[in-house]
Design a protein that fits this description.
The protein has helices at 27-34, 47-58, 60-106, 112-155, 160-302, 307-365, 374-380, 392-395, 398-410, 422-439, 443-455, 462-470, 536-546, 574-581, 591-599, 627-632, 637-650, 682-689; strands at residues 496-499, 502-505, 519-522, 550-552, 564-566, 585-587, 610-612, 622-625, 654-656, 664-666, 678-680. It has 698 residues and is mainly α. The chain folds into four domains: 27-221, no CATH class; 239-384 and 399-474, no CATH class; 496-612, Rossmann fold (3-Layer(aba) Sandwich); 622-689, no CATH class. The protein has a seven-stranded mixed beta sheet, with helices on both faces. The chain has a four-stranded parallel beta sheet with strand order 9-8-10-11. Helix 4 packs antiparallel against helix 5 (160-302), helix 5 packs across helix 9 and helix 5 runs antiparallel to helix 10. It is rod-shaped.
């Protein structure tokens, strides 16, 4: 093609410009461009212009080719400008959509509706991309057509008019492309508005999430405060329970002291009897001394000259006085012993009264935490302990005291010699001191008194001794009353408890076998559990007996003498649940027995070994077993029986038939009825008793 191509001065269309920005060149502009020569200079209107016009007229073919070249160049520029603008718009649109899509992917879980809208926007974008590709294909077709037109223009300038028509058609197509671009821009604005709407909703949701997070943090703080308060109250309750157990043990020790005091009182009665006998003997000796004095006076008057006979009578008188002094010393020793026993009796009464007051105060303070046990209540009323465990220090000498106590209760008197004379006095004193020594009192005083008897007596004033003896009144001895010891009622059935001494009743009768401080039973042992195989029971039982503990044999009912239950975790036997409601130790690890064997004594049950519950969920509450629960468990009737037993006997609750009057309603999981009380199923019922229970997967 001759001559350089001319470039139309069409203004560029910026991205996002309005429809009026893109303005096609008018024919007048094209004509003005066509009036330019090949070098770009304007034509003159002078003679040279006329000559040039003539030259142009002479060569119409060359002028048409130039015009076509200018048109083609303009079309190329317009095409490139439109394509560039479209590419920039598509690139910007793709960038915005990619950002919007990436942003929405992070919030897809919470904003499903926004994701649907963004998916629609992506679909629109794909449609726009397809339209752009279609336009590019059309532009390629136009390029092909333009190339064809250029070749045709070189060979046939006569077809210029037809080419002008084609140029007009191309202008129309460009107008249509501009309108399409305008539509794409409006769709882009809609997509931007939708994205801004989504961002606004996202900010609203974020604000709502922040508010919810603040509420959650505030509730978490309140929960932590409540947990700390629960832990504090649990610690206080545990300390109160331990203090109650200590007070119960103190009451048991005081009761042991009372029994010991009863023994001493019985011995004092015997000592009083001996004192009365000694007084009679002393009166007899006094009469003998007086008669001897009279006889001495009479003999002295008759035998004034007989010094030998007088000397013999004086020796006899000194001998009688020595006997009198010996009896006075024995009586003084007996009165000192009586004073000591009276002091011990008063001291024990004061300690017992103080312990009872402390137990009463403790029961009043612990009334809100579940109340006191029957043993503490009976101790506060002055009744004997029911199945009370005595301290180990007092268990050692109980075997020695039991014989003497049994004699005291049967009314068997101690064998006290009733003979008179010096030898009878010494033998009687020795028997009394041996009795006191066997009871554990008066050892030091006995040693001092016997040494005095062996070495010779002092010479006390007989008149002062007589006055001291006469000052003893019957009312002074009335303080030594034998306290009555009624038989302690038995707890539960008389079952068999295995100890190292053999099979004995687990509930000890009065003054019988001392209850063991640790009594263990087994529950839930099965062959399918390696750690709780039934064959382990024999080995564990022997270890428990070696530690001076007791083993409760198998039985259907729970015995209150049991202190520890060895059972697998999540065991729901009636014995395990009854032990939990009775505040007994649930030991879930047999290693506790082996560790106790290594230590040589029963170790405290730590959290790694087991647990002990102090809650009383059913105490004073009512529970109703619905017909739906009975129908669901028709093949497991034991559930109804166990529920009634656990609530009434061990939980101290009440079973009612009307569900609208019950605090707890035990029903099936499929029951959709509405009740006034709290609705629970069998699993929830077990969790109320054992909060740590987890249902086994079937």
């Amino acid at each position: 093609m001759a001559g350089p191509k001319r470039t139309l001065s069409m203004p560029a269309v910026p991205a996002g410009a309005g429809s009026d920005t893109l303005r096609l060149r008018q024919p007048a502009d094209l004509a003005a461009d066509m009036d330019m020569d090949d070098t770009g200079a304007p034509h003159d209107n002078g003679p040279a212009a006329g000559a040039a016009t003539a030259t142009a007229t002479a060569g119409p073919s060359a002028s048409g080719a130039n015009r076509i070249a200018h048109v083609v160049a303009d079309l190329d520029a317009i095409q490139r400008q439109v394509l560039d603008d479209l590419r920039v718009f598509v690139s910007q649109q793709n960038t915005r959509l990619a950002k919007s899509k990436a942003h929405t992917h992070h919030l897809a879980a919470e904003f499903a509706s926004l994701e649907v809208r963004l998916a629609q926007a992506v679909a629109d974008r794909d449609a726009l991309v397809a339209a752009v590709h279609k336009l590019e294909e059309e532009m390629q077709d136009r390029d092909t057509k333009i190339a064809t037109l250029a070749e045709l223009a070189q060979h046939a300038s006569e077809e210029l008019a037809a080419k002008d028509d084609q140029v007009e058609q191309l202008a129309d197509q460009l107008t249509a492309a501009a309108s399409q671009l305008q539509d794409l821009e409006s769709e882009r604005d809609q997509a931007i508005a939708q994205a801004e709407d989504a961002e606004q909703r996202l900010r609203v949701r974020s604000a709502e999430i922040d508010v919810l997070q603040e509420d959650l943090a505030r509730k978490a703080d309140m929960t932590r405060d409540l947990e700390e308060e629960v832990q504090r109250l649990t610690g206080e309750h545990t300390s109160l329970v331990y203090e109650r157990e200590n007070l119960i043990n103190q009451v048991a020790r005081h009761e042991g002291r009372i029994q010991k005091l009863a023994e001493q009182t019985k011995a004092m009665a015997e000592l009083e009897s001996f004192a009365r006998n000694a007084q009679d003997e002393m009166a007899t000796l006094t009469q003998q001394i007086e008669s001897k004095d009279l006889e001495l006076i009479r003999v002295s008057s008759l035998l004034e000259d007989s010094g030998v006979q007088r000397s013999g009578l004086e020796d006899q008188l000194r001998e009688e006085q020595s006997k009198y002094k010996t009896q006075l010393e024995s009586i003084e020793l007996l009165h000192n012993t009586m004073d000591e026993l009276q002091g011990k009796n008063r001291h024990l009464d004061q300690e017992l009264e103080t312990a009872r007051k402390r137990i009463a105060e403790f029961e009043t303070a612990a009334a809100a935490g579940g109340g006191a046990t029957g043993a503490a209540e009976s101790a506060a009323r002055g009744e004997p302990s029911r199945g009370m465990l005595l301290p180990a220090a007092e268990e050692d000498d109980m075997g020695v005291r039991n014989d003497a106590i049994m004699k005291l209760q049967k009314g068997l008197p101690f064998a006290i010699p009733k003979t008179r004379g010096p030898s009878s006095i010494m033998s009687t004193s020795e028997h009394i001191f041996s009795t006191l020594e066997r009871l554990g009192i008066g050892n030091k005083r006995k040693a001092g008194a016997m040494s005095t008897v062996g070495d010779g007596f002092r010479a006390p004033d007989p008149i002062a001794k007589r006055r001291a003896l006469d000052s003893i009144s019957v009312t002074g001895r009335s303080e030594f009353r034998m306290p009555t010891t009624p038989a302690a009622p038995r707890l539960g059935q008389s079952t068999t408890l295995t100890t190292r001494a053999g099979a004995v009743p687990s509930v000890s009768p009065r003054l019988g076998v001392i209850p063991k401080s640790t009594v263990v039973t087994f529950s839930g042992f099965r062959e399918s559990l390696p750690g709780f195989h039934p064959k382990l029971k024999e080995t564990l039982s022997q270890h428990i007996l070696d530690l001076n503990g007791g083993v409760k044999h198998e039985s259907d009912e729970f015995d209150y003498s049991i202190t520890h239950v060895l059972t697998p975790p999540n065991s729901r036997t009636i014995k395990t649940l009854a032990a939990a409601l009775s505040h007994r130790f649930l030991v879930f690890d047999v290693q506790w027995v082996y560790d106790s064997v290594k230590a040589g004594k029963f170790l405290p049950v730590e959290p790694k070994h087991g647990v002990r519950y102090f809650n009383t969920p059913f105490k004073g509450k009512t529970l109703c077993i619905t017909d739906a629960f009975r129908e669901e468990n028709a093949a497991r009737v034991f559930r109804m029986e166990n529920a009634e037993l656990l609530v009434q006997k061990y939980g101290k609750g009440i079973i009612v038939s009307d569900p609208n009057k019950a605090d707890w309603v035990l029903t099936s999981a499929s029951d959709k009825s509405t009740y006034k009380g709290r609705v629970i199923d069998w699993t929830a019922f077990i969790k109320i008793i054992v909060p740590d229970y987890q249902k086994e997967s079937s």
